[in-house]
Amino acid sequence: MILVLWDIDRTLVYTGDIDRRVYRETFTSVVGRPPTALPARGTGVTMPLAVRELLRVNRVPEKSVETLADRIVAELPDRLAGHRKLLATEGIIMPGAMDALAAVQQAEHLIPTVVTGNLRGSAETKLSELGLIGYLDTDIGGYASDDPHRPALVRIAQDRAATKHGAQFNRDNTVIVGDSLEDVRTGLEGGAKVIAVASGTTTERQLRAAGAEHVLPDLTSTAALLSLIDQVVSAS
Fold first, then answer.
1. Which of 25, 79, 73 lies closest to 46 in space, CA to CA?
2. What letters, b where the CB count within 10 A reaches 16 and e where it falls short, cover 140-152?
3. What pLDDT, in 10s, does the model give residues 160-181?
4. Is the Cβ–Cβ distance between 160 and 194 less than 8 Å?
5. What CATH number does the domain located at 2-15+89-234 have?
6. Contact criterion met (CB below 8 Å) for 135 and 112
7. Dist CA 119 CA 49 (whole Å)
8. What is the distance between the alpha carbons of residues 21 and 234, in angstroms, rounded to a whole number?
9. I want to staple 87 with a disulfide (CB 3.0 to 4.6 A). Which of 42, 53, 91, 123 is the partner?
């Protein structure tokens, strides 16, 4: 069996400025003033780390950062859930993503879940509103709510999958599919083969320079993706 760890944002879905709107609203609610700067787009950094950077660039006193960050992180999933209709109408499924998810789910030797910089509640809201959650076993995923250090999420997902399926998962039979430099780092440091997808803000050249041996332009060729998953595992 092969564990397939999907990234979400800009790999499977694109939600435009909705995340940034949620950051702005939650910051304003917790800090008491609107932010003048927001997290960078498409970096793949986990939400807890993005929140801490958000507080610092908006000149929140360092002594207050951790307390306020915890409050913001706790509020983010519910705040996003309040924009379900916006996600459903303005969110976009990335080209080829639904067919790719369906093909991976249907392959008997592949186990699809997620490893994401989103908090679990936020991840499930996005996937649910865009009709993708049924293709994934989200119970065995790794989320920023488990650990803000993204490479650690690979081991978390592997352990959860091992408990459920009675098999061991490691670098030799785990593949991460994602679009950002953080996805590449997560696989290399966390213990998974990497299939990068140049569908986000990071170019193929940048992804390869970061250590991705395999880069797809997008997910529109399901056959190419399935072949590559088997190829990177058989090369172990």
1. 73
2. bbbbbbbebebbb
3. 999 999 999 999 999 999 999 9
4. no
5. 3.40.50.1000
6. yes
7. 11
8. 43
9. 91
Q: Which residues contact 1 (CB under 8 A, 6 or more apart)?
A: 109, 110, 111, 165, 167, 169, 173
166: its two tokens: 């009675």
State which amino acid sits at residue 105: Q
What would you report as the CA-atom Rg of the chain, rounded to the nearest whole angstrom? Answer: 17
> Residue ranges per domain, the chain?
2-15+89-234, 18-87
Predicted TM-score (pTM) of the model is 0.95
pLDDT in tens, 120-163: 999 999 999 999 999 999 999 999 999 999 999 999 999 999 99
Q: Flag whether pLDDT at 236 surpasses 80.
A: no
